[in-house]
Specification:
The structure is a single chain. This protein has a five-stranded parallel beta sheet with strand order 2-3-1-4-5, sandwiched between helices. Helices cover 61% and strands 4% of the residues. With 639 residues, it is mainly alpha-helical. It has three domains: 213 residues, Serine Threonine Protein Phosphatase 5, Tetratricopeptide repeat; 58 residues, no CATH class; 278 residues, Rossmann fold. The chain starts with a helix and ends with a helix. 45% of the residues are buried.
Length: 639
């Protein structure tokens, strides 16, 4: 989006070039335009004005090339299409002249405001475009093109709830507006409404089965629902199509490799990651995906290739971050701990620059939760909520051993393992808002105002919305979203018969394991700094102490180290807390065939070992600041 200050400077410079051109002072006009080029590289009207200057100077080929670039950036430039029509006719190219004339005629048949708004949007002037669209829609509320463009602007500024409403309105007026429906699918995916997104994408595919964009969005919906087998086939189908760029091939190979890894088809996943790297050698996320297999070991040639990629001048920032974490893992596997830490520290420092997380916000959020969810509040609502006992919540910090616990429970004949479900988070955000600096509820006290009937309805909503993930039809199911640790109070209110297990790992081991893990998107933003993660662990510990004090006996806290030391006793304790009879299959969890989405997906397909318990000690000299921040949490975590 063009910053407000830059907009004024840009327009003034463009007007200066126009004035000079109108006076016939073309060299001076071209000099002004040359000065603008680096500062505004995607500005369509810059290309239009340059094309105009080339046309006046008699250089028709240069004018045509420049004007074509203008309309590639911004197809809603009537003046550019008009000049192109004239220039093509002068060149004797009747076909291109006619095409330009058709585009001009189409724009002339549109309301002027819609053309202006599209032009502003194409040049990055989102705020101005939004103002034009809202004013126009006040007079013509059924203009589906305006609704779609306004929805796109809303989505880009993260107002996805309004974007969803606008697109639903557009589709209500024009059900066959396929471009708007595709945008609707993407908004639903962004809002993690995977079942609805899949239905909408499937409807598009009935009209055009081979459409690549529709197939990709349908596959994304399947991924969100944890349904990976069709995804593997869809990406395979797309890879056999014609016309893919190296970038698209790399992305498709990566996505297919991820699906194969989650499905447990490790050798095929590795082959796809390798193919992604072959298509794009500096593709950091593909290198990191290999490192993230945990059981993978890089060879000398791999390390040399990663280092070459790191040295490239045109390397993107995100690739640089991924490559740093991949090299950190490669050096760790070779016991080159100083070099490993150097790479982990570099990756964390770069990633930390991009996050919004602030530890003081998490600490304040934890205190707000304590003040809201008191023993008195729970006592007053002791008979509330939806009675279904099906959910088993596994909470805690990431990298605590929760995937192992999930795999043990999911090996039981009465339980279905799903994935890290987002439904509780949506419910909480809808009620309480979300602090962008930590992800915790912004106004948790809103819960105290919710009626008994509405609390029960929220529990029923959770059960209904999660049915789509329960494809095996078993009576119990797991929600392994670690961030639900902050929502235990609400979970207890809305589904009081659900099971809750907190998986806890020794602080130094847990925090180090997070520091060397690169999480996707905006997930777990606390994990990229020693102070941030130490303070976050302390906030988590305080939160759990509060839940144990106000809901005694409600949550089982299971220490990962105890699980590793005595699997049999720990498995029996877990199952008893879940009100499930012991089954020997739970001790053979590594033989259970199911999709596992977390970074521990390969580790839980192997028997338990103790290798990971003391890994952090190799890095102790660099982790001293973390040790200091954790303070008495190093002891309190066992109490």
């Amino acid at each position: 989006m063009t910053p407000p200050g830059d907009f004024g400077q840009r327009e003034a410079a463009l007007q200066q070039a126009k004035d000079l051109r109108a006076l016939g002072r073309l060299p001076e006009a071209l000099a002004v335009l040359a000065g603008m080029k680096a500062q505004y590289p995607g500005f369509s009207r810059w290309y239009h004005e340059l094309g105009h200057c080339h046309a006046l100077s008699g250089n028709a080929p240069a004018a045509i090339e420049t004007l074509q670039q203008a309309v590639r950036i911004n197809p809603t430039l009537p003046a550019s299409w008009h000049m192109l029509e004239q220039l093509y006719r002068m060149q004797g190219d009747a076909v291109q002249a006619a095409a330009s004339a058709r585009n001009l005629a189409m724009l002339q048949n549109l309301p002027t405001e819609i053309v202006v708004a599209n032009s502003l949007y194409a040049d990055g002037d989102r705020v101005l475009a939004e103002d034009v669209l809202r004013d126009y829609l006040d007079r013509d509320a059924a203009n589906v093109g305006a609704l779609r463009l306004l929805a796109r602007i809303c989505q880009e500024r993260d107002s996805t709830d309004e974007a969803e409403v606008l697109l639903e309105r557009a589709l209500g007026f024009a059900p066959d507006y396929h471009d708007a429906r595709l945008d609707y699918v993407m908004v639903l995916l962004h809002r993690q409404r995977y079942a609805r997104a899949g239905q909408e994408a499937a409807a598009l595919l009935t009209r055009e089965p081979g459409n690549r964009a529709y197939l990709k969005q349908y596959a994304a919906a399947c991924v969100g629902l944890g349904n990976y087998e069709p995804v593997i086939d869809i990406y395979g189908q797309l890879l056999t199509g014609a016309g893919e760029s190296a970038t698209e091939i790399a992305e498709l190979r990566l996505w297919r490799g991820n699906a194969l890894r989650i499905a447990g088809r490790l050798d095929e996943a590795i082959a796809d990651y390798r193919a992604a790297i072959e298509a794009r050698p500096g593709y950091g996320v593909a290198w990191f995906s290999l490192a993230n297999l945990k059981t993978w070991r890089f060879g000398d040639e791999d390390i040399a290739a990663i280092e070459r990629a790191q040295a490239a001048d045109d390397l993107q920032d995100l690739d640089r971050i991924y490559l740093a974490f991949a090299l950190g893992k490669a050096m760790e596997d070779r016991a080159a701990y100083a070099r490993s830490w150097q790479h982990y520290a570099q990756g964390n420092a770069l990633r930390h620059q991009t996050v919004r997380y602030r530890p003081e916000a998490a600490e304040a959020g934890e205190k707000r939760l304590e003040q809201t969810y008191t023993a008195a509040l729970f006592a007053d609502r002791s008979e509330w909520g939806h009675a279904d006992p099906a959910p088993i919540f596994i909470v805690g910090l990431p990298r605590s051993g929760s995937t192992l616990v999930e795999q043990i429970i999911a090996s039981h004949s009465q339980v279905e393992g799903t994935q890290e479900l987002t439904e509780i988070g949506h419910i909480v955000t809808g009620l309480c808002g979300q602090d962008p600096a930590c992800g915790l509820p912004l106004h948790p006290d809103a819960v105290a105002q919710v009626s008994r009937a509405d609390i029960s309805a929220l529990g029923e909503r959770f059960i209904d919305e999660t049915r789509t993930y329960r494809r095996l039809g078993r009576p119990r199911f797991i929600d392994k979203m670690p961030n639900n640790v902050w929502h235990i109070g609400l979970i207890h209110l809305i589904v009081p018969n659900a099971t809750i297990i907190d998986v806890r790992r020794e602080p130094m081991a847990c925090c180090f394991s997070n520091l060397k893990q690169l999480f996707g998107g905006a997930n777990q933003e606390f994990a990229y700094g020693l102070e941030d993660i130490g303070r976050h662990y302390r906030a988590y510990l305080a939160m759990m102490e509060h839940w144990h004090a106000t809901l005694p006996g409600r949550v089982l806290t299971l220490h990962y180290e105890d699980l590793v030391d005595d699997l049999d006793a720990s498995a029996r304790l877990i199952l008893a807390h879940c009100r499930l009879a012991f089954e020997p299959a739970c001790l053979r969890f590594h033989q259970t065939q199911r999709s596992v989405r977390t970074p521990s997906s390969e580790q839980v397909r192997q028997p338990i070992d103790r290798d990971g318990l003391g890994q952090w000690q190799h890095y102790a000299q660099w982790l001293a600041p973390l040790h200091d921040v954790l303070g008495d949490a190093l002891i309190r975590y066992r109490t």
